[in-house]
């Protein structure tokens, strides 16, 4: 390696539970064998690369960038999830959770990690994590943050429009067709557009508030069930819903919503191409959920069904 080479730090890729288990087993095997070891001061960070192989999976792994996971390794992360300096411990029962808590707190004492008591919550059945209310029911919006958003007055400047979209956009996974609803507001942020908060903007502003106050509870995915992906495109936006159902006659439980606006080139696409673009967008957006899982795709565009059928016939 060149001495003057500039260190590269890359984000870790999101992985679903199935692939994460494969990575954990491989890393543990390499750690026990003495092939890899943790360090605290690495300036180089690269993501885990999972490579599907004909006879199974292999992984390549470098040092992890987080301080807390390094400090709490050797099977400690089997009972906790870590994001930066926030971590959550969990268990299936009260006694097991208490035992895990005791182990982690002892580990913190041994490694001189200091916790802010005012920010700690112990032995709770629900709590705020990274801006969401997490419980055994699923994931909900933080009511205190929603109250702040809904109390905002009608924007009087571009800065206030941008601020509102930023706050509301944080919870966009709870709102179906968020980009379509917010389109009048988003157009105000375009270059060389005169600011004019007209009636369509006011209606979009109020509709986003209404959607936030009635946001659904998003269900946690079950990795044993197939995922259902519902896609649809309008003239200027793409929308998708990721969900699952426990049985044939059961209702679909929503896991997440996704949407975005089209760029100037995509606005000129044909209807069929827009619908196909929505599917590509949805598969890319929910890749961390779908990779390695069975998927059922729903689209209301008949031409796409003919296209897929034609491709299958050509392969035969």
Considering the chains and any ligands shown, give keywords for the structure.
3-stranded antiparallel beta sheet; 4-stranded mixed beta sheet; Retrovirus_Pol_polyprotein; alpha+beta; 316 residues; single chain; 4 domains; 11 strands; Alpha-Beta Plaits
Concise structural overview:
The chain is an alpha+beta fold. It folds into 4 domains: 1-54, no CATH class; 80-123, no CATH class; 143-214, Reverse transcriptase/Diguanylate cyclase domain (Alpha-Beta Plaits); 227-309, Ubiquitin-like (UB roll) (Roll), CATH 3.10.20. The protein contains 11 helices and 11 strands.
Structure characterization notes:
- This protein has 316 residues and is of the alpha+beta class.
- It has four domains: 1-54, no CATH class; 80-123, no CATH class; 143-214, Alpha-Beta Plaits (2-Layer Sandwich), CATH 3.30.70.270; 227-309, Ubiquitin-like (UB roll) (Roll), CATH 3.10.20.
- It has helices spanning 17-32, 67-71, 94-110, 143-150, 158-169, 178-181, 183-188, 199-213, 271-285, 287-290, 302-315; strands spanning 49-53, 56-60, 80-83, 86-89, 126-129, 132-135, 138-141, 227-233, 237-244, 253-261, 295-299.
- The protein has a four-stranded mixed beta sheet with strand order 10-9-8-11. A three-stranded antiparallel beta sheet has the order 5-6-7.
- Helix 4 runs antiparallel to helix 8 (199-213).
- The protein is globular, with a radius of gyration of 23 Å.
- The protein starts with 16 loop residues before the first helix and ends with a helix.
- The model is unreliable at 57-73 (pLDDT under 50).
Within the largest sheet, what's the order of strands?
A: 10-9-8-11
Helix/strand/pairing category: alpha+beta
CATH third-tier fold name of the largest domain: Ubiquitin-like (UB roll)
**For the record, what CATH class of the largest domain applies?**
Alpha Beta
Shape: globular
Number of domains: 4
Extended strand count? 11
Oligomeric status of the shown chains?
Answer: single chain
**What is the average of the pLDDT values?**
84
CATH hierarchy: architecture of the largest domain: Roll
As residue ranges, the low-confidence spans are 57-73
Secondary-structure element string? HEEHEEHEEEHHHHHEEEHHEH
Q: Helix segment count?
A: 11
């Amino acid at each position: 390696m060149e001495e003057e080479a500039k260190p590269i730090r890359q984000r870790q890729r999101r992985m679903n539970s199935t692939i994460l288990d494969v990575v954990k087993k491989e890393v543990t095997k390499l750690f026990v064998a003495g092939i890899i070891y943790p360090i605290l001061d690495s300036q180089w960070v690269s993501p885990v690369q999972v490579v599907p192989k004909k006879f199974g999976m292999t992984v390549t792994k470098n040092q992890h960038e987080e301080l807390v996971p390094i400090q709490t390794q050797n099977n400690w992360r089997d009972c906790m999830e870590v994001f930066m300096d926030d971590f959550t411990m969990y268990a299936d029962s009260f006694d097991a959770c208490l035992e895990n808590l005791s182990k982690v707190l002892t580990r913190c004492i041994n490694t001189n990690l200091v916790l802010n008591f005012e920010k700690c919550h112990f032995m709770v059945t629900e709590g705020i994590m990274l801006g969401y209310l997490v419980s055994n029911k699923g994931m909900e919006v933080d009511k205190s943050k929603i109250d702040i958003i809904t109390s905002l007055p009608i924007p009087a400047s571009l800065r206030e429009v941008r601020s509102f979209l930023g706050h509301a956009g944080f919870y966009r996974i709870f709102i179906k067709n968020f980009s379509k609803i917010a389109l009048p507001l988003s157009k105000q942020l375009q270059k060389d557009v005169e600011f004019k908060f007209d009636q369509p903007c006011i209606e979009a502003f109020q509709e986003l508030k209404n959607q936030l106050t009635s946001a659904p509870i998003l269900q946690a995915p079950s990795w044993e069930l197939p995922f259902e992906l519902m896609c649809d495109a309008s003239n200027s936006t793409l929308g998708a819903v990721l969900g699952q159902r426990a049985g044939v006659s059961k209702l679909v439980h929503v896991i997440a919503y996704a949407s975005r606006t089209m760029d100037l080139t995509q606005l000129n696409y044909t209807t069929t191409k827009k619908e196909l673009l929505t599917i590509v967008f949805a598969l890319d957006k929910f890749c961390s959920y779908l990779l390695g899982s069975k998927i059922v795709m729903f689209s209301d565009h008949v031409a796409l069904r003919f296209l897929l059928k034609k491709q299958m016939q050509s392969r035969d």
